[in-house]
Structures are given as C-alpha cells and as structure tokens.
Amino acid sequence: AIAKCPFVVVSDVAVNTDTAQLANVLLPANAWSEKDGTVTNSERRISRQTAFRTAPTNARPDWWAIAKVAQKMGYKDAFAYTSPSEIFAEYAALSGFQNKGSRDFDISAHMSITPKEYDSLKPFQWPQVERESKQNKRFFADGGFYTQDGKAKLVAVAVEANQDASSTNTFTLNTGRIRDQWHTMTRTGVSARLSAHIGEPFIEINPLDAQKLNIKRAGIVDVHSVYGSAKLRALLTDRVAPKETFVPMHWTNMFASSGRVNATVHAKHDPVSGQPALKSQTVMLAASPMKTYGFMLTRHKPDQLEYDYWAIARVKLGWKMEFASNSSPVRVLNTLVEQKQLSQPDAEVVRYNDAHASVYRAGWFVHNNRLESAVFLAATPVPLSRQAIVSIFDHDFKDNHERLAVVSGAGLSSREDVGAIICSCMQVGAKTIQRSIDSGCSTVQQVGDSCGAGTQCGTCRSDICRMLPVAELA
Questions:
Q1: What is the spatial distance between Cα 233 and Cα 382, in angstroms, rounded to a whole number?
Q2: Prediction pTM value
Q3: Could you report the per-residue pLDDT of 67-84, keeping only the tens digit for each?
Q4: What percent of the residues of the chain are helix, what percent strand, and what percent coil, each to the nearest 5?
C-alpha cells in the first residue's frame, strides 16, 4: 500500500526499516531517550519527560518537523514555536476552549504555564480545569457522563459471523504481541538480549489439532487465507483452544522469510470505532514438507538466505538463524560450503557427519581458537541446546577436544547449560529455573530469590509459574 503512494514521508529513528526503504523523504527523529515533552499513561496521568541522551546531529523533535512543514505551507505565525512548553500551554488552552464541562479532557488550569513552571511540572491527572482546585480525583466518581443528558451511551453492535471454520484444516487466527518484542522489531529486533527468549515467528496450535494435521512439534506450518500466506514454526500448546491459533505480529521481511502474518488478515473494521478485526481471520493450516532443518551461528549477518524457511536473530557477537529446506541435508551442507557463507580463507573446519541419520554438523575456527561460524543440519527439527552453543561464541578454544564440543551440540562442560532463556532481564534459562524448583522452590518468589528470574520487569513470572508443579505466583 505504501509503495503505491505517490509521495511518502517517513519520520523514524532507524534508517534500515521496511517503511524507510519506501520513503521519498526520510526525517531523522528523536528517540524516546532524546525527547523533551510530556507523556500520558492509561491512568490519565501526565508526566514531564526530559531527555537523558544527546540526539544525533541531524535528528530533530517531531514537533519541530511538523512546525517547519506548516510554516512552508504558509502558517508561519501559527507554528512559530520555539520549545515544547509553548505547545503545551496552547494544548492546555485548547482543551478548555468552549468546553464548560462538555468534554472530558480539560487541563486548562495549565494554559498560562511558563517555561520554568513547565520544566518543574509535577505529574498530575486530567481533568484539571481552570479555576478549580488541582486535586486528583476518580473519574465519574460523582456520576454523570459527558453527554447531553449525562447518561452513558451504550452502542449495540452486530457481530458478523466468521467464515466457515468447521473443516479439519481451517482455524480462527488470533494475532498479537509477545513480551520481548515491540511493533515490527525495528529497535527490539537488534537486541541480542531480547531475542534470546524467542528468536523466530511461531504459530500456537492445540496438540489435538496438530495431531489431526500431522503437524510435528517445531515443524514448519503453511498458513493460508484468501488474502495471503505465511510460514511459521509450530508451537504445540494447550494455551490455545482447539480450532484456534495465535501468531505474533512483530516479524517482517528483515528478520524472517515469510513471518508477516498480517498479510493473511482481512481489512474489516468496526464501523463505529474503526477498530480493525485482527482477531477473527479464518486461515487454513498444513504441515510444510521439509527435508532439512538447520540451525546456524555466524559472526556476520548471512547475506544469501535461499531457503524455503528462515528466521534470523541477533546474538552476542553475531547472528543465529533457523532455517528449513526442501533439499536434502547433504545438499544443503554442500551448498553452504560452495557459497563460502560460513568460512574465511584461513578457517579450519571441524565436521561431524552421520549419513545414516542424515545429521551433519560443522564448525569453522579462525586461527584455531575462535569460533567463526557453525551449522547443524538434520532431517527433523534440530535437537540442540541453542543457548549452550551461543554461550561459547566468545570462548577461546585451546585444543581440538574443545572444538569437537561445538559440533557435538552439547557445549562446553565448563559452562553451565542454562537452557532456553526465560528471564530476559537476568538472562536466566529454563534449566536453571528447573534446578531451583527441583531444589525445593515452590513459588515464583522463591525461584527469584534462588536464581534471580522474575525479579526485574516481572513479565516472565507467568512463564515461571507454569513451570511450577502447583502454579503459585506469590
């Protein structure tokens, strides 16, 4: 849709995004840590926000860019702002203009705020009406809504029947967010710490449905609708009911071959609120026939991603990639070697090949002591502790015995295998948490005291709770 627009202006903090590549004009904006202004939370509390980082030389505030455009359009006097405090004062004045209690938002008490008062502004809840005492109060505590008769207006809605999802391979698709990624990953996608928890797009499917469709755990699933398609990793879980699925919406073409699940979703929306119907698309699922599954670790971002399925994510000192192909494992390995994607001219290679089991593994070492890259191939989803391999990327390999530990997939005995990362803040893995539980921890709090998991932002506490024999968040 953006590509069809005759003129596109993009304001962003990152240059390498899908949207920025379509821009006729790209405006370098200030990031959150560089912004000066106010923010409002869901409690109606307005707080002063000041920058704590210096913006890059060419970056500018959003209000500055809008004002400059308006001035060029002939509104020079109306947009002659020089600071956020001037805009906030006008904003406060407009909230009270011809209001007289007819609109809920009113902060006219701040219409005469000075730059000095703005800089020292304390958090407050709206409304704060001019001439009224500046006291926090519960909204609608005294009854009455902002309507002519003071009564709430309840809007009756008609639910449109979903498309037929009664056949075996049709499902209701729900899309949403996961805890460690934000929007389309333009910033969170470059964080190795955040990608450690989940590094590729997935589809949650109830095990009963997966059995009927012959979808295997960690297999690749083809998702189709009349609008588009996606390829996603299968996550079998009872968190979704039979005939329902869940897919996160974060992945774009920058991080996955076909993870843009919104391409499968219709454009229907509520006629009253405009809310898009992102939770009720009918899709068809099928197991994607793959002959080879692979996991790759490399210091340089792969530039030839010619696989039927792939997803890349940042790790400390490099990149990890999950992929799958319709070619045989030995052919995939030979192609990787021929294309020299994983090696340097002076690299020494350590291999492990089991043709009978269709298992092929190799590690490339530079100057014999630094792991440059590694690849693990199998005819089924690769059974490998990813975190154990990623954790030795910074290791100084002393001898061939240690290098063999890479292709074994077990990692180094001198480094604890923490398992898949559950707590991104403290980088605590599932195996570490399980050891705490096995040692007697029976609550999330006790697990946190034991290994630190769940003691920072807290978003992993529900995951820890599910690991307990008897779920207990306390």
A1: 13
A2: 0.85
A3: 999 999 999 999 999 999
A4: 20, 25, 55
